Amino acid sequence: MGAPKQKWTPEEEAALKAGVLKHGTGKWRTILSDPQFSSVLKSRSNVDLKDKWRNISVTALWGSRKKAKLALRKTLPAPPKQDHTNNTTSLSIVPLANGQERTNPTSPGGSGAGSLQTHASKRSITSLDRIILEAITNLKEPRGSDRTSIFMYIEENFKTPPNMKRNVAVRLKHLSSNGPLVKIKHKYRFSTNFTSVG
Amino acid sequence: MGAPKQKWTPEEEAALKAGVLKHGTGKWRTILSDPQFSSVLKSRSNVDLKDKWRNISVTALWGSRKKAKLALRKTLPAPPKQDHTNNTTSLSIVPLANGQERTNPTSPGGSGAGSLQTHASKRSITSLDRIILEAITNLKEPRGSDRTSIFMYIEENFKTPPNMKRNVAVRLKHLSSNGPLVKIKHKYRFSTNFTSVG
DNA sequence: CGGTAGGGATAGGGTTCT
DNA sequence: TAGAACCCTATCCCTACC
After folding, report:
1. What's this protein's function (chains A, B) (predicted)?
2. Residues in A touching B93 (Cβ below 8 Å)
C-alpha cells in the first residue's frame, strides 16, 4: 500500500498536457525534468505521467457513452422537485432517445440515410445552447470543458452539420458573455475552458 | 442481470479475516491465491474481498465512533471540501513494508480456513503492532483514532485475549515514541489520538 | 540500472438491492 | 434510512523489454 491515492489536481493535469504538447508522448522523464513543469509535477514519477496520460486518452476517446448510462438513470428518479445544491442550468436532459443512439441497425425501411432525423438543421439556436450546456454537464470535467471536448461530445451524441463547430464556438462566446457559462483560464492550460454557473 | 447478490457466509468472512491476518490488507489477490483460503473463497474475486473488508471495517468504525461522528456532522453541516495537494493523512505511509510484513509463513496449523486460531497468546509483538496499524488505517479517522476506537476495532475483527487492551496500550506507547505513530492532541478532544506518519 | 509500455491489482467513490 | 453486495475507473504496481 503505497500512498492511499494521490488524485491528480487540475494544475498537474494541465502541466502534463502542456508537457506532452511540448515534448511529445512517451517523453515522461523529459517532461518531468523540464523546469517549466517540474515544480507542478514534483510529486509525480515518470510512470505516473505515463499512467495519467493513458487515462486521459482513454476517457477522451470514450467521450460519451457514459452519457447514455446517465440518461438512463436520470429517467428513474421520480422525486421531481429534487433540485439539490446549485444545479445551475438544465438538469440533465436526454438528447437522443436511449435506444436510438445505439447503432440502431435494422432500421426498417432500409437505407434512408435520412432516417436520422435528428439533423441539427431542425434544431433552433436555443436548442444548440441546450446541447452545449448538456455537454458540459455530462462531461463533468471538474474544471470545465474546453471547446474540443465540447465539440467531440456533440459530435458523438448528435448528428451534426458541417458548420457545427463554428456555431458552437459562437454560442460558447455568447453563453459566456451573456449567459450561464464562465470561462476558465488556467496558468498552464493552452485553451480556455467553460463551465456553468448558478 | 447482475448476480443475485451472494451473501457472505461466516466461513468466507472468517477466511477473509484469516487471510488479512496472514498477508495484510490490500493483498486481496494474494489472499485469494493462497491455497489455505482459495477453496473457501473460490467464488469471490479480489475486488469482492476488498469490498467485504471495507464493509467489515465500516461496521467496526461505526460501532466505535458512531456518536462522535454524528455529533460532528450536526455541528458541521458543511462537508469538507476536497483537500487535494497536501493531504495530511494521505501521505500515510507504509508502516511495514509490504515485502517484510509478511508474517512468518508458519501459519498455525489449522488447515480449515474457517478457523480463526489467531489467539494473541501466540502473536509476537510485531504482529500486534501490525494489527494496531491496520486498525488505524482502516478506521480512517481523519484526525487519527483514540485508544477506545482502536480497541473496539481489534475486538470486532480479531479473536482477542483478555489482556489485549493492556497490550495494545503498551504498544501504542511504544509505537508513538519509537515507531511510525504520532500522537495527536486536539484542542477540543478529551483523549489523545494516534495516526501514522511517513 | 534507467526508462517506457502494458497488463493487472487496489482504493475509493457510486450504485443497486434488500 | 441504513447496510451489504456489487460496479466503475483513476491511480498505483509489476514485469517484460529495450
Report:
1. Binds preferentially double-stranded telomeric repeats.
2. 3
